[in-house]
Amino acid sequence: MKFFVYHTPELTPTDTTPDCAVVIDVLRATTTIATALNSGAEAVQAFSDINLLMNVSEQWDANQRIRAGERGGKQVEGCDMGNSPLLCTPETVQGKRLFLSTTNGTRALQAVENAPLVVTAAQVNRHTVVEYLKTQKPETVWLVGSGWEGSYSLEDTVCAGAVLQPFYQDNSDIVGNDECLGAISLYSQWQDRLVELFTQASHGKRLERLALHEDLEYCAKTDILDVLPKQSEKGVLKAS
């Protein structure tokens, strides 16, 4: 296995696809996706375009859908909820499809949707992703951070490091680019202080200004969900 870390979807190669792509948007899309599926959502369907989300979701029974739209950390007008994992309770999402569009994470999913295997990772389901990769042993793995509007984000890189660390401990030859070592180093330094790191990160500060500190604390929890969001068709993630 060879791992490659790309800090944003814009940095992924355009002339090839990996055997497996792992999309990461810790604050907050992939944390929300994992939490919704763990709470019994039928699926999460991701859109980079909010208008397309509205049009496609309109074809679903209103009782079987939840429109979750976020831009700049705030809920999009006309949606049922924003991008908070804390809202994805079993009472709210059980048996429903979550139609999700966010500032960054859904763009990252779109960038790698043609890979034969696409899964999402966050701190909350890190262990499940690691175990899946150990079982499947894909030859090439891209860990794709979502960043913030095309720029680097600490929280996605530290999660990539959290996924990489157990593989690197067993075999340092898994490193495919320098970004892998940077991610591992970041996680090694901050793994016991993730809330502190998140509050210092630019997007964490943005969420703090929106009084979403509880979201930050939840997104920093590691290995609390035994769920693997996996692409079943382009843009659609189901629990695996």
Write up what this structure looks like.
This protein has 240 residues and is an alpha/beta fold. The protein has helices at 29-38, 50-57, 90-93, 105-111, 126-136, 154-170, 178-190, 194-200, 202-209, 213-219, and strands spanning 2-6, 20-24, 43-46, 65-71, 74-75, 97-101, 118-121, 140-145, 229-233, 236-239. The chain has a six-stranded mixed sheet. Helix 6 (154-170) packs across helix 7 (178-190) and helix 8 packs across helix 9 (202-209). The model has no long low-confidence stretch (mean pLDDT 95).
Question: Quick recap of the structure?
Answer:
This protein is of the alpha/beta class. It has helices at residues 29-38, 50-57, 90-93, 105-111, 126-136, 154-170, 178-190, 194-200, 202-209, 213-219; strands at 2-6, 20-24, 43-46, 65-71, 74-75, 97-101, 118-121, 140-145, 229-233, 236-239. The longest helix is centred in the C-terminal third of the chain and has 17 residues, at 154-170.
